[in-house]
Amino acid sequence: MNSITRPDSLDVAGIRSAFPILAQSVRGKPLVFLDSAASAQKPRVVIDALCRAMETQYANVHRGLHWMSERTTEAYEETRDAVAGLLNAADRHEIIFTRNSTEAINLVAHSYGRGLLKAGDAVVISEMEHHSNIVPWQMLRDDHGVELRVIPVSDVGELDLDAFDACLADGRVRLVAVTHMSNVLGTYTPAGEIVTRAHAAGALVLLDGSQAIVHRRVDVQTIGCDFYVFTGHKLYGPTGIGVLWGRRGLLERMPPFLGGGDMISSVTMERSTWAEVPHKFEAGTPAILEAIGLKAAIGFVEDVGYEAIGRHEQALTQHALARLDEIEGLHIIGAAPDRGGVISFVMDGAHAHDVATLLDRQGIAVRAGHHCAEPLMQRFGIDSTARASFGVYTSLEEVDVLADTLARVREFFK
Amino acid sequence: MNSITRPDSLDVAGIRSAFPILAQSVRGKPLVFLDSAASAQKPRVVIDALCRAMETQYANVHRGLHWMSERTTEAYEETRDAVAGLLNAADRHEIIFTRNSTEAINLVAHSYGRGLLKAGDAVVISEMEHHSNIVPWQMLRDDHGVELRVIPVSDVGELDLDAFDACLADGRVRLVAVTHMSNVLGTYTPAGEIVTRAHAAGALVLLDGSQAIVHRRVDVQTIGCDFYVFTGHKLYGPTGIGVLWGRRGLLERMPPFLGGGDMISSVTMERSTWAEVPHKFEAGTPAILEAIGLKAAIGFVEDVGYEAIGRHEQALTQHALARLDEIEGLHIIGAAPDRGGVISFVMDGAHAHDVATLLDRQGIAVRAGHHCAEPLMQRFGIDSTARASFGVYTSLEEVDVLADTLARVREFFK
Amino acid sequence: MMFEDLRDLYQEVILDRGRHPRNGSRLAAFDVRAKGDNPMCGDRVEVFVAWDDAGKVAKVGFEARGCAISVASADLMADSVAGLSAAEVRDLAGYFATLARKGSADDIPARFAAAIEGLRALAGVHEYPSRVKCATLPWHALVAALDGAGEASSERD
Amino acid sequence: MMFEDLRDLYQEVILDRGRHPRNGSRLAAFDVRAKGDNPMCGDRVEVFVAWDDAGKVAKVGFEARGCAISVASADLMADSVAGLSAAEVRDLAGYFATLARKGSADDIPARFAAAIEGLRALAGVHEYPSRVKCATLPWHALVAALDGAGEASSERD
Ligand SMILES: Cc1ncc(COP(=O)(O)O)c(C=O)c1O
Ligand SMILES: Cc1ncc(COP(=O)(O)O)c(C=O)c1O
User: Fold this and answer.
1) How far is the CA of B281 from the centre of ligand 1 (A)?
2) Where is each Aminotransferase class V domain found (chains A, B) (predicted)?
3) Among B217, D48, D80, D106, which is least packed by CB within 10 angstroms?
4) Interchain proximity B358–D128, CB inside 8 Å
5) For chain C, how many structural domains are there in total?
6) A208 CB under 6 A from ligand 2?
7) Which tens digit of pLDDT belongs to each residue from B59-101?
């Protein structure tokens, strides 16, 4: 069989030992967790940060004049600094905490979309978006009369940039909202190029970084985009916290989205006024503990380093593509040159669910279904795929276990 | 000085030992945490539930065909059952997870308010609401032409029910959204009576149970309300999770609020269809770990028992009212007969912030400010209060420490 | 053999029916029909029912996109309900749901003995909670067709 | 004494100025004014400035609802800026912000020596992060008045 095909710059064993769950077995087999694109496992530092906060330093934030509240507010606000650093944001006030990417996109669709767009304006998305970057814009279209345009995807799984230009041509597009990395194909989109073309046509750009930021350093100032969103739980952080970054001037012009405590400047029954950004967009008690956990997760990622993460991901991906390609009857969906550690495939004679169940029986966790990307499924004429996705803790050996087992799955269904 | 005035039915020492943070000292003094109405501390079982999930059993929910995802989905959905049990909901599908109370109220204001109300309909709130139950309705008023009416508060700090009847008289009120317990005055509102009058006038009732559910058993079927909201972090659970309960038929008629993954039935670029409740209202990856923590918190509360919690709260409150009343120059705001463990006061010659800072120096955490209830401050002609609030772990001795220290604070500023 | 322990789930008849369903087509003439879908995984099925003159099921056909389990389940279902009244189909659907969730179903009336025998091949799904819906989806659609509902969705919970 | 360690924060001058501010009223005639508020705690202040013929501050008055720290700070501020130009007031506001946040401020130009002396009583707030804003709020309002902004808000962070 197999072979480790590339030198690996990462101390994968060391990293694995930082993730307690990886020592579990499933159905009597060692867990091989290849579903990180759905949600990543959590390193010890994140678990500890959450526990320590609850054990030693917790109170509600922003409103307390006592020690516990002051310290907890500091910890919460330090996460804002950490995220600003992670994204190289110009200003910490540009970081808004949400529940997840989905809420971040909805915030923009409501506040920017309903607040600043007019009927007849157009929004552009693409055929490879996650439902979370489709449905909010459909709702905006249906409620608010904004036109929705779609960049098609080529056979190799890239955005069709000529078609994108055509979308932009009439100058009515005000916002382009596209993924920075496909959660199905693994394709990275040419963010800088998209921004250049969109800006030239007078449109802003929102990038859905839910997948991209897990694998690559993101510099919003270099990319030049206007909004960037990501979700904590895929970046080795807790659930319940996501991030919207937006240019400060833009955020300041946008009306608030949710109303309530913490987002106001003053309230009378007749009229309320809003706090400054980012607080204007953070109504109610925020995900305090989750922010503390997210800071630890960012620290973890920065300690490993995006350089090493990227090299490791490329090694895994190239190895996996090569190994899966050897399997007769298995077809990988998408073949973009610039792609990362998310691989979708179908198998002749076996539905993706059946493939997933057989793998699960061997302790291997992959996802099967439409991956919240039905339009992309339709584009490729399929109804589902099986998807293996890699994290910083994924080893080449695990990729081999996957490939070897898939070969047997193929036998089983032949 | 002091004296324990009542027998206490609760093993407070035992309960305190379940909260690791209570062993901390602050500024060299033992922590006396009297800010539980802002956010409660977390018992060991909640901390452990979160850690154990991250260490042994975690993946994204609902979409996985593998063991980790199936088990995590089960755990997440079990919390829905636990919440349905806690509220005595008729149907587990009536439980929707949100980030907090604030988001739950905003969900109703958007989905029910913008979806099912028309310009000219009226919504009733009260003068003792938290900003989270004011601002969303103001935004609805301003965006959607719904009239906003306000039930005034009497001098003792109760809702003026005659004025409430007057609000309802013209039959245009479609929704009454009021608190079940004031976070400033500690007053419990007469929920059953409010429901009877509102329903007779053809209006639905939303109760903001953020404070009430911490101290009293809530049975939504007995109360007869139509929506109930609460927030996990005040009920000894994690941040990042709240609950909206609504009658199933009502939820089914309401359009979705946020769009994205997990809330759809099918997506094409032309048109999407929605999943059934509750999923229709839960877009994106939910607060999975937080739900797991919330289940542990509910288990903790049920183990202690609402009976015992209520008795303990009454003992603390009566004792505190008596002790604070002895302090010359200290004035308690509100004197409703049906009230619980939240006490706001002002002190002659000392601003609430200064009071809070002096208490903090002695390790005593109270809140000072407008408590996100500016209209109520205006009603009482003040700009802020200091507020002591009690949890299941609060002891009579701590109340005495507060009272003794406040007497010295009064001296300091005299 | 690597997947020996999966033979309970993927019995020969399942693999066979999943690959080559006997009833896997739209009926040329039918009286009622309904679609079913499982939004979480994308399984879709459409079920067509023709009544006989006595008001019993004459024939069931279906079109499905889905896994071996869901296709085999639809196919075995179509066999099992021939000759039953609408009320009987509803009852049988209930017994089948129990079988799929629990692995067995008690107190099945004698008149369903033959029908349930043909469905037992699917009992193995009960060990795979997320696959139970694959097996029950066609039944949801069938009952929706009888109810005139036109659509059914396999819930997540 | 129980609160002995708070004497750094609540010096006699603070308690006195907090209770009986010398400048705590609206000016009968003023040239610019601005409001400041701290949304988190409800402190409010309105500052009024009258210029002299040379374009320097003739007098500052204020109306405040707030804690001892914020009222005392507003009152001491009013004293400290008399005779300064708008540019000097801005500079002094910067030094004061550092003093409040850090407990001391270096390299203060000699021309501010007297002014800063009067403000040092507030240096104790630096140990109480949430109270720093109480001390700086009147200064934010003053600078907003000079900028013609009309409103200032004391940020939470
Ligand atoms: C009565 C009341 N309603 C609503 C809220 C808002 O809760 P959250 O901030 O968790 O959304 C609170 C607490 O802050 C409250 O006390
Ligand atoms: C590309 C992409 N966008 C958006 C999302 C939504 O993230 P979340 O569910 O955390 O909101 C995901 C993951 O589910 C994703 O992969």
Assistant:
1) 20
2) 32-402
3) D106
4) no
5) 1
6) yes
7) 999 877 899 999 999 999 999 999 999 999 999 999 999 999 9
